[in-house]
Amino acid sequence: MSVLRTLLARATAASPLTTAIAHPCDEASLRAAVEAVKAGLIIPTWSGPEVKIRAAAKAAGLDIGAFRIVPTAHSHESAARAVALVRAGEARLLMKGALHTDELLHEVMRDDTGLRTGRRLSHVYVLDVPGYARPLLLTDAAINISPSLAEKCASYKMPSISHMFWVSRRRVSRYWRPRKPLIRRCARQSMRRHFCKMAERGQIVGGIVDGPLAFDNAVSLSAARQKAITSPVAGLADVLVVPDLEAGNMLAKQMTFMGGADAAGIVLGARVPIIMTSRATTPARGLPLAPSPLS
Questions:
Q1: What does pTM read for this prediction?
Q2: 128 has which bridge partners?
Q3: Do residue 129 and residue 247 come from a single domain?
Q4: Is 208 exposed, middle or buried (0-12, 13-18, 19+ CB in 10 A)?
């Protein structure tokens, strides 16, 4: 049984969660939600232009007649109404539909009507990689562009989601991306060493942290041994903390589109988890649900 099948089996053992879906006006976002309903994961409330939603569902051959639609005029209002549903306690999850990520997050981050908690938002990919025996979490590939040390620490805390995926002793690798200008590369490596030293001193808790490690050394015991790397994390990483958004996005898409990995994106740090779907959604391998990377 694949990692994703195991996770879905455990998730469907619980009751489905009410989910506000912002602007699901295309086949990809509608189908992802409908399949999640069939899998017993969510109970959706659609927030968007009703005519467009029903037209997209009809064109895709999807039956959404049993679900509630909160009508809106445009995508900005769709995002605002979806966030309002969460604030009102009518939804326990927020899901992105056919609108830009920044439109949704703008409403999430509003001081007066948003879903801020005082924690920093961070995006986490949950990856089911063929040949890798455990879920692989990757942060941050969609929210924090070039995070500082403090922001990295906040992002590290977000992958506490690993406990939700039954990773009892998470191993965190600080990922090294080579071929950067020398001064910038030295600064980034210094930041990573500070990060690991903080974990060593007990300032960052909840996992075993090491790095910087190149990608092959983080996920391959053989590569680590060939390079004589001794580390409790090398070859066994559960979480990859990448240097910046550019590296994270490229790495996630390489594993998905060329490595055959299934990926689900989630934003943590708000009042509720935010499910991130993609215009490039494709069905997961032999599964009813279709998680995918951001576009």
A1: 0.81
A2: 262
A3: yes
A4: middle
When pLDDT is cut at 50, 70 and 90, the band that residue 212 belongs to is: confident
Question: What share of residues in the chain are helix, strand, coil (percent, to 5)?
Answer: 40, 20, 45
Residue 25 pLDDT greater than 90, yes or no: yes
E strand map for the chain = 17-22, 42-48, 68-71, 93-96, 122-128, 136-139, 171-175, 208-213, 239-241, 262-268, 274-276
For the cut 80, the answer to whether the pLDDT of residue 75 exceeds it is yes
For residue 270, which amino acid is it?
A
**Distance (Å, rounded) from C-alpha 20 to C-alpha 37?**
13
Alpha-carbon Rg for the chain, nearest whole angstrom, is: 20
Rounded alpha-carbon distances, angstroms, from residue 279 to 16, 74, 258, 271: 24, 18, 17, 25
Q: Which pLDDT score, from 0 to 100, does residue 165 have? A: 46
**Contact yes or no for 158/269 (Cβ under 8 A):** yes
Strands 262-268 vs 274-276: parallel, antiparallel or unpaired:
antiparallel
C-alpha–C-alpha distance, residues 29 and 45, integer Å: 13
Sole residue written with tokens 């066994």:
236
Q: Give the 3-state secondary structure of residue 45.
A: strand
Report how far residue 168's alpha carbon sits from residue 263's, in angstroms, rounded to the nearest whole number. 21
DSSP, collapsed to helix, strand or coil, labels residue 144 as coil
CATH number at residue 242: 3.40.718.10
The DSSP result for 59-116, as a single string, is HHT---TTSEEEE-SSHHHHHHHHHHHHHTTS-SEEEE-SS-HHHHHHHHT-TTTS--
**Of all helices (H) and strands (E), which one includes residue 53?**
helix 50-60
Residues 259 and 285 in one domain: no
Range of the domain at 207: 119-267
